[in-house]
């Protein structure tokens, strides 16, 4: 999206982690295998990953900052895809909070150390122990290590072993599967408590 790029938005182009996640889905899943599944993509950017999931039969909700949503809506035309704004670290909007998502996807989300705490909190709010969570990222800085350290409170994180074809031309991109720890309370939904020691609540 040239307009988004001109405005300095990182979501205006397809990054390697998004390509790898799209290939990963196409490699391991058959068309229609996610039929009936409700899926949410975090930080959707161009929407490539979400569109791949829609082709697998999922009902897809693409999310990004409110400023990015018009760019997504302008380019996405698929009967199984809708677009919603979502700001990490804030209380989940009702239309997201009230939806039980079977799958949550994200690619290259942890590159900015300023947002990793908010991102981890949002993931913990979104997911139950039954949620399939798949994240890809290019390991490039300490921010990713801190992000997975934050996730460890709420998730078991396992790196996937990939076929070489999946990462061809996209070096140092990793795919991780997350499982929400059963019985571990979620973060307090009050954004004012984000950087304190919140009183946990059931997610």
For the terminal residues, how far apart are their CA atoms?
Answer: 36 Å
* Largest sheet strand order: 3-2-1-4-5-7-6
Mean pLDDT: 86
Which series of helices and strands comes N to C? HHEHEHEHEHEHEHE
Quick one: biggest sheet? Answer: 7 strands, mixed
- Using only C-alpha atoms, the radius of gyration works out to 16 Å
Q: What proportion strand?
A: 15-25%
Number of strands: 7
| Content-based structural category | alpha/beta
Helix content: 25-40%
Q: What do you see in this structure?
A:
This protein has 203 residues and is an alpha/beta fold. Helices cover 31% and strands 20% of the residues. It has helices at residues 2-6, 16-28, 48-55, 69-75, 94-97, 116-126, 142-151, 164-167, and strands at residues 38-42, 59-64, 81-85, 103-107, 132-138, 155-159, 173-180. Helix 2 packs parallel to helix 3. The longest helix has 13 residues, at 16-28.
Quick structural overview:
Strand 2, helix 4 and strand 3 form a beta-alpha-beta unit.
Show the helix and strand layout.
Layout: H1 2-6, H2 16-28, E1 38-42, H3 48-55, E2 59-64, H4 69-75, E3 81-85, H5 94-97, E4 103-107, H6 116-126, E5 132-138, H7 142-151, E6 155-159, H8 164-167, E7 173-180
Parallel strand pairs: 1-2, 1-4, 2-3, 4-5
Antiparallel strand pairs: 5-7, 6-7
Structure characteristics:
203 residues, alpha/beta, seven-stranded mixed β-sheet, 8 helices, 31% helix, 20% strand, disordered N terminus, disordered C terminus
């Amino acid at each position: 999206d040239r307009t988004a790029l001109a405005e300095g938005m990182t979501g205006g182009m397809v990054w390697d982690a998004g390509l790898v996640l799209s290939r990963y889905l196409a490699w391991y899943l058959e068309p229609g295998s996610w039929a009936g599944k409700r899926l949410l993509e975090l930080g959707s950017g161009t929407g490539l990953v979400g569109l791949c999931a829609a082709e697998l039969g999922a009902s897809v909700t693409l999310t990004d900052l409110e400023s990015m949503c018009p760019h997504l809506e302008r380019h996405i035309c698929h009967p199984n895809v809708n677009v919603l704004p979502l700001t990490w670290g804030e209380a989940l909007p009702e239309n997201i909070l009230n939806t039980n998502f079977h799958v949550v996807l994200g690619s290259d989300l942890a590159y900015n150390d300023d947002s990793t705490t908010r991102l981890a909190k949002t993931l913990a709010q979104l997911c139950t122990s039954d949620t399939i969570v798949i994240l890809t990222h290019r390991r490039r800085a300490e921010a990713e290590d801190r992000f997975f350290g934050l996730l460890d409170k709420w998730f078991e994180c396992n790196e996937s072993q990939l076929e070489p074809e999946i990462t061809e031309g996209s070096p140092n991109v990793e795919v991780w599967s997350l499982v929400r720890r059963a019985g571990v309370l979620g973060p307090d939904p009050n954004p004012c408590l984000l950087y304190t020691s919140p009183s946990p609540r059931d997610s």
